[in-house]
Automatic annotation (TrEMBL), chain A:
It is found in: Mitochondrion inner membrane. Belongs to the COA8 family. Its main location: mitochondrion. It is a peripheral membrane protein. The keyword Hydrolase does not apply. Keywords: Membrane, Mitochondrion, Mitochondrion inner membrane, Transit peptide. One of its GO terms (cellular component) is mitochondrial inner membrane. GO terms for biological process: intrinsic apoptotic signaling pathway. It holds the Pfam family COA8. Residues 28-63 are annotated as: Disordered. This is Cytochrome c oxidase assembly factor 8. The gene is coa8.
UniProtKB/TrEMBL annotation, chain B:
One of its GO terms (molecular function) is protoheme IX farnesyltransferase activity. Keywords: Heme biosynthesis, Membrane, Mitochondrion, Transferase, Transit peptide, Transmembrane, Transmembrane helix. It comes from Carassius auratus (Goldfish). This is Protoheme IX farnesyltransferase, mitochondrial. The keyword Nuclease does not apply.
Amino acid sequence: MNVKAGSTLIFGSLRPCYTHARLSLTSSCRGHGRSASQAPKQAERAERTGFSPAATSKHDWIGPPDRLSNLRPIIYHIPENETPQERRLRRLRQETEDWNHEFWTNQNFTFSKEKEEYVRSQLSAKGLSERDEDGRKRTLSIEEMAVFYKHFLDKNIGRHASYNREWYRRNFTITLLMAKVALDNTWRTLTGQTRGTGREQGKTT
Amino acid sequence: MYKTSCSRLTGVWKCLPCDGLVGVSVQQKLIANAARSLTSARSLIQLCRKNQAEWITFQHLCFLKRQYVKSSSGLCQRARPKQEHVVSVLDVRDDSVVSQVQQIPALKPEPGTVVPPSDPTEPEAARAACLEARQWKELKVEYSDLPGIYARLSKLKLTALVVTTAAAGFAMAPVPFDPVTFLMASVGTCLSSCTANSINQYFEVPFDSNMNRTKNRPLVRGQISPLHAVSFALACGIPGVTLLTLGANPLTGFLGALNIFLYTCCYTPLKRLSITNTWVGAVVGAIPPVMGWTAATGSLDPGALLLGGFLFSWQFPHFNALSWNLREDYSRGGYRMMSVTHPDLCKRVALRHSVGLIGLSALGPVLDVTTWTFPLVSLPINLYISYLAFRFYHCGDRQNARKLFFCSLWHLPMLLLLALTCKKSRMPQDEASVAL
């Protein structure tokens, strides 16, 4: 299918690991019900998350926390006559969500991996095997783990600081844009204007 | 409550069918732990053997919630004073279960190494997709839910505590009690606190999602949009500060605005940059009683600063003990807290300030805030918290940290109550001279 191939291509370049994990969840009939005017990205998200909202739904949908990043994905509703401002907002939100997801997936994965390595190295330094007699995994005491936690924080301080700055900037921008869109809509409702024809010819998201 | 626990639970458990290896090791772990209790082991084994589609029913979710999720929330986040019998099965000290489960989903991006499950992949994928579809929610604001959402957004319980400290500050001021000003100051403080908490949650959405303690907050769950949260904050903050300024005095209004600024623009970003956030947070906690006092008297007296000092010092045993048991979450979330980066300093500071409370209590009669009985009657509780802080300092383990934290929860209200009962009454000569 065109949409599927296109989405896999785009997706494959963006986020290889994530696509693999998620493709297994794709059920064959999802995403095909959408109209041709829907952006391929929307279908791609629907595929990625294995869910697509009912065509009559007028709202965004939020899903359960992602198991890698713990963030909840949102499928944004595209209104019939979406204004350019609304489209900019939706794109920005989607992009921020993807960026956030990537950061936290990486963070959680790195944390777990380094923690495992640390536990393994500490246990081997003590001459203990990874599992004890009952087959349970050995764990270190909280004080020994505290050394790792401190090390992890110190190692990543630069990355965290730059993520913070970027997140605050994006959050503000999104909120301001949301406020503008809300005010625009209110103004339009109050003055009785109708929306324009919406999208320009041939432009897709 | 059920909904959140179940969705959270299913969020954890839904990864199992996609990945047989994960499921097997988690199941093994759970079975190993639950073997201490026959009934739970039997039920767990039954559950694990059942077909996925039959597995996740509401009853099973509730069972699992009782058996596991509750205990896991007792393990990692807020420590509960009463531990139910069920919780003792998955012991508090046995972090391995929860950390194992939490780790495993994060370790999964290499599908090539996965052992395929015995069931064919396709029906499983379809089943998993069905499960996910069941949990997607429409982002539509339910007006009936709004009060609950706002309560959680503004951290209502914390706000109530803040208002209590402000009210105590007002009551301790050596002026005739004015109920109207008292009401204005209390409502104004409440609204300001709601604002600060809402903005804090607005800033921290991705971090809150990743910490167990905070992942059910309204913005994380998408119950309201960020714009809605900011609007709510403004709708509380502007009337709140105005009420403080006009209903009390401009100084109180200024302190309220300053507190909001300190909390949202200093403490919140600093949490991820430097350990000085704890000191800033202590100042934020100290300002409400000062505000109460200035609302009554209109000036920043030494008595106000003393009450602020009580709150400032109290914050350290309270927060340091709390953060001691959350070190893993803080580290993973990128929060720079003393308990993670400078554990010795953390324990030292908690002890130092617990002992400092004794000294501050002694200042009460010196500054004419309380009578001389106050340092005496408050000595037992101050000694007790200092003793617990010493135990925490000496052997910094989970138990001592938890004990210190719980002690701090009742210590502060007791201290304020004792101060109120020992409040220095205004001299009768003043009244006589005024009457004349």
